[in-house]
Amino acid sequence: MFEEEEWNEGADGLALPRAVPEFRGDAKGSQPPVSAAVERKRRQRLVATLRRLQAAGAAPVGDGEAARKRPRKCAGTARDRTAAEAAVEGRRPQDGGGAAGTGAELPPGVPKPPRRNAEPAVGDSAAAAPRLTRKQWRNKQKNKRRQEKLKAEKNAGRGGGTGQAAPEPADPAAVPTGRSAALRARMEERLLAARFRYINERLYTGSSRDAVQLFQSDPEAFQIYHRGFAQQVGRWPQNPVDHIIQRLRQRSASLVVADFGCGDCKIASSVRNKVHCFDLVPLSPLVTVCDMAEVPLADESVDIAVFCLALMGTNLQEILEEANRVLKQGGTLMVAEVASRFEDLRAFMNGMAQLGFRSVNKDLSSTFFYLLEFTKAGPPRRRPCAGLRLLPCLYKRR
Fold first, then answer.
1. Tens-digit pLDDT profile for residues 208-228
2. Cα–Cα distance measured from residue 204 to residue 39, given in angstroms and rounded to the nearest whole number
3. Could you tell me which of 55, 107, 117, 115 has the C-alpha nearest to residue 86?
4. For the chain, does the N or the C end have fewer beta carbons within 10 angstroms?
5. In this predicted model, what pLDDT tens digit does every residue of 127-162 receive, in sequence order?
6. Predicted model pTM
7. 8 secondary structure, DSSP code
8. 291 bridge partner residues
9. Of 132, 204, 160, whose CA–CA distance to 390 is shortest?
10. Any bridge partners for residue 376, and if so which?
């Protein structure tokens, strides 16, 4: 329908059509010829488009078929696209160009970003190392913590962390660290427990005179025994000495008390009464060291005699006869003992009656110990008391 357009070069170097194409034919649906004003506006728009393309760097439109193809509006050279990407990504330099390739320099202290698809350096071990799985990473962290813990224990054994260097021992194996120290502590505890059981058995299966000789030959033995005994009593829900102190506080403060087997003198430090303390080894300045069957007191010189877990030895009759000797007529005898030691309580009470003691009160409510109270009714009978027997309180190995 349109004839071939003829192009000529304008004053600004642009190729412009020479004339408006001639309209031919009267086909149905065809449009009427374009006026000169419309053609002028069309020409102006075409000139403006060609100028924008030339300003963007596009090649000038030449003659022939290639000149008729209009470039797209978003078209640009590869260099332009590369510059745009660099601006969006923070002006990152291209491969091989460096910071000088884009005309921008990185601020000091900022590391150079890695290049895309760049091979790792030969000496870069972190980049060359294979990626670990989750299980391998956990094992690596566990081994790292174990090494740090062993190192800390080693430093602690050498005096690290205190700011002072520990002197080097002559034998490195003589200084226990870590597991060896814990093992040594457990072995020492077991050894002390074994010694306590041995001393306790000697006290209950021998006489009071044998106990005196034992502690005179080995003064450290009493410390070990007293420590183990305190641990055993501490496991009980109640301590019998507290009940005795409570009963003494209900009595007059003018009464004189004799504490047989006083230990650490808890009764003397808890009441206002005058208390004579007797034991085999002095744990306190108040203690008088002696045999419980021969205490240095005058006849009928005390008002109350106390045996709190102290009826040891095979010569119980001699010990209780000594308590009868120092007690005044009508004086009180308080006995607190482990309940399992009484094989036959009625026989024991009959034996106490033969020694001149009359039962006043019996507290059998506790399953751990019995608290018995007697009063002196007269002198003891000089004959053996068969029922006066208590079982030894022996501790089993645990």
1. 999 888 888 887 888 888 888
2. 135
3. 115
4. C
5. 556 788 988 888 889 889 888 888 888 787 665 444
6. 0.54
7. E
8. 294
9. 204
10. 357
